[in-house]
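Fig. S4 source data, part A: sequence.
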Amino acid sequence: MLEQSFDLLSQSDTYAIIEFLDQQENPLKVAGTYDELVKHLYWKEKNVPDMVALARAGIQYCLAAGTAVADEDIELALQLRSLAKTISYNLASYTWIGWREPGIELDETDQRFGLEAAKTNLRLALELDKGDMRISRAHWMIGAQLLAAADRSQARESFQLASIYASRAEAETDDLLARSYILLVELFEDPENASLQQALAQVKRQLECVEHGQMFVGQVETARQVFSVPAQRLQ
């Protein structure tokens, strides 16, 4: 199924892939194929338009298929909704300008889809009782997308919730990341505040001590550069 989808991807259009997948009988395999296609289009092809189109189609497929089988096979329904959550998270992440991913160009529409996907990811994380760690990361992703949308007040609230849930999960790295973004938002509002600068520097020093700490500090610094110039708020 995946190879046939790749063939259609190179020879035809995204609607041909969607039509092909809709005709398949194994919903879990179809959902997994959507997931793989989305990752391939982002990481290998750097093809944002097709990635967004198939991610949105995949989320809708998983949710609809999950509803369709819920009465007969609740376990399958939960698996499908979980895959909808996975694709939603990836779509939100792949459309965040704060990564400054090489070869990826994002426009305002992509970012709107990303924010919507982030909200879907949180809704499903709560509905499926995915636990404090996943809920923390879901709040962080919403905060990241809200920061990109220049909604700093709501972004701060989402990062604060991410920190709270990370603390509950005893996830030091996630907590430090959330706290660093809270401080970033506050610094964007008050860039000359020495206390905030010192606080961020301290959190970054703590981040450097965790596994992959240098990478996380680099991500924070990249986001600081990307969002240091105010963006136009999405309406």
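Fig. S4 source data, part B ends here. The CA atoms of residues 46 and 102 lie 9 Å apart.
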